[in-house]
Design brief:
The chain has 186 residues and is α/β, with parallel strands linked by helices. 50% of the residues lie in helices and 12% in strands. The longest helix has 24 residues. 39% of the residues are buried. The protein binds shikimate-3-phosphate.
Amino acid sequence: MSLITPGRNVVLIGLMGAGKSTVGRILAKRLGRPFADTDKLVERAAKASIPEIFEREGERGFRRLEAAAVRNVAALRGQVIAVGGGAVLDPANVTQLRATGDLVLLDADPKDLAQRTRRRGRPLLDGVEDREARLLQLRSARAAAYTSAAAHVIDSSGRSPDEIADAVLLWASRQPGLLSRDEPVA
Ligand code: S3P
C-alpha cells in the first residue's frame, strides 16, 4: 500500500462465478494492496460457512452480516475488494462502497458462470438442477442494479483471470485517484 495517499478501492462486483475473488487476488498482488472478500469476512464474523449461515438465519440474516462487512471494508482505502454477488442489490451497500472506491462489474455468459460454479457452497445454486438457467434468471433480475452501481463493465467470458485483471488495470490506470502514483500497473 502507498505511504503517500492510498488510492481508492477497486471493488469487483458481479454474479457468482464471474471471477471476482480470483481476479481480485491477482489484482491485489500486482498492486501490492490488501485483498478483502466480503464473503470471507462474513464467515469469519459468524464463525460459520455461508451455507450454515443461510440455514440458521436465512438469507435475511446473511444480508445483515454482509452489510456489516461492507461497512467495515469500505471504511478504508487502498484495497482491492470482492463483494458477494448480491451485495450491491442493497443501495446502502452501494453508497458505502462508492464513498471510498470505484465499482467494476465482471460480466459473463451464464454458460461460463455455470461452469465456474460447479463446487457446492452457494446456497442460491446448491440443489438447482439447471444452474445455467438459474444464473440467466439472476443475471436478468440483477442487471439494472449491477449496471447502475458499476463505473465500468468488463466481459469476462472466455478470458483467463490474468487477462481480466489486465483489463481492470488498464481501465483503473486511467481513472483519476483510483491508483496512487507509485502503484505498478504492468
Ligand atoms: C450470493 C453470492 C455469493 C454469496 C452468497 C449469495 C448472491 O458470493 O455472497 O452465496 O446473492 O449472488 P459469490 O458471488 O462470491 O459467489
